[in-house]
Amino acid sequence: MFDLIIRNANLPDGRSRVDIGILGDKIAEVAAAIEATAPEEIDATGRLVSPPFVDPHFHMDATLSLGLPRLNRSGTLLEGIALWGELRPTLTREALVERALRYCDLAVTQGLLHIRSHVDTSDPRLVTVEALLEVRDKVAPYIDLQLVAFPQDGYFRSPGAVDALNRALDMGVDVVGGIPHFERTMSDGASSVEALCRIAAERGLPVDMHCDETDDPMSRHIETLAKETIRFGLQGRIAGSHLTSMHSMDNYYVSKLIPLMAEAEINVIPNPLINIMLQGRHDTYPKRRGLTRVRELMEAGLNVSFGHDCVMDPWYSMGSGDMLEVGHMAIHLAQMAGIEDRKKIFDALTVNSAKTMEIEGYGLDRGCNADLIILQARDPLEALRLKPNRLAVIRRGKVIAGTPARVTELRIDGRPQVVDGSYYAPVLPTDGV
C-alpha cells in the first residue's frame, strides 16, 4: 500500500507515536498504527516530524557574498546598502548562480524547502533576475523558490526602476516588491505603494513589500499598504515585511492601525535576526529592540511568519539557513516564552509562512505533499530550544538529506556513557505529549 512509512512520530499538534504512510509523492495515511508495511520504513522513535521549514523573506542574490567588495565595518543597514551598491555592477550571472545554489544546498540540510527571495531589480542589466530564474528552475525538484521583483534603490527614486521592475515581471518573477520608506519623501513612498499594488492587481500577482524598516515612528507606509490592499481587492495576497517602525509608534495610533491591517488580511513578516542587529543604531540607552509588535499582531488574528532575511552578506555577517535560529531569537525578542507562545512561534516558521507564500499541498494531512522533516527533538518547544539535527529531510516521498543524531560520549565513572540533550527536558502536563 505504501512506498514509505514513518513510524512512532510526534506531530506539531501534540499527537504522539503516530505512523505516516506515504504513497508516491503524497501522504496517504496518518494513523495511530498502520498495519501495512512498506519497502522503506523509518522509526522516528518519538521524535518530532514536521512539515518542512519555510522562509518567506530572503535575499538570495546577495547571500554568501560576505567580504565583497569589503566588509561592513559599522554593521549598519545603510553601510550594507552602500556596499551592495558597490558590488552590484561587478555581479555576473555565473557567480550569482553558484552562490545561490550553494545556499540551497545548505537550506536542504536544514529542512528548509520553501524560500521566497527578493531579487534586486535596480541594475538595468537585470543579471540578478536572470541568475535567480535559472536557480529557480534548477532547484525546483527539491526547493520551491519564489522570486520578488525588488527595486532596492527605490521605485521612483532610482532612474529606470519602473521599467526594470516591469521587465522583471515579464521575465517570470512571481511577486511584486517595493521599499516605500526608501523613497525621497513620504508622499513618494505612498505613491509607490499605490503604483505597485495597481501593477499586482492588473497582473494577478501577490505583493511583498519592505515596509517601514526604520526606527522612525512616523514611517507609516503600512497604513497605506493596508488601504491599497482593500482598494484593489488584494486581501490575503499582500505581505508587509519588517514593519520595524511599529516598535516605536504611539500605542493609540497602533490601536487603530492593527485593525486596519486585519481588515486587509495583511501577512506580516518580521525578520528577528536582522531586525535586532540593524535597528536602534541611533539609540544610546535605552536601546530599542526593533522587532515589530509580534504578540499584538498575532492576537489580532493576523498571519505572522518569520524570515531569515540574510546569510553572510553585506548586511549580516552571520546566519546558518536554520529557521529554528530565527524562531529562537523571536522568542527572546518578542518575550514569548510561554508554552502556547512557543507553539505560535513554531507555526510562524512553518504553516504561517506556507500561507504567506500560498504553498499548495503543504502540511501533514492525508493528500498533502510528502514533504517532511524528522528532528532530534520531542516537540516544537524542544526544537526551538535545541535547534536540533535534522535526522531526515524528505521531499515528495524521497529522503534527500539527513544528519546523524547528535550525542556525546561521557567518560565519568558511575554516569551514563552517552548523553543526548534532546532527552533532558521534563515532560510538562500542559505540553500535550
From TrEMBL:
Q: Does the keyword Transcription apply?
A: no
The UniProt keywords, alphabetically, are:
Hydrolase, Metal-binding, Plasmid
InterPro entries under this entry? Amidohydro_3 (IPR013108), Metal-dep_hydrolase_composite (IPR011059), Metal_Hydrolase (IPR032466), Metallo-hydrolase_Enzymes (IPR052349)
Gene3D superfamilies, sorted:
Metal-dependent hydrolases, Urease, subunit C, domain 1
Domain (Amidohydrolase) spans 40-400
A GO molecular function for this record? metal ion binding
Which biological process terms from the Gene Ontology are attached to this UniProt entry?
A: cytosine catabolic process
Q: Which Pfam families match?
A: Amidohydro_3 (PF07969)
Quick check: keyword DNA-binding in the entry?
Answer: no
Q: What PANTHER family does the annotation carry?
A: CYTOSINE DEAMINASE
Q: What protein name is recorded for this chain?
A: Cytosine deaminase
Q: Which species does this protein come from?
A: Sinorhizobium sojae CCBAU 05684
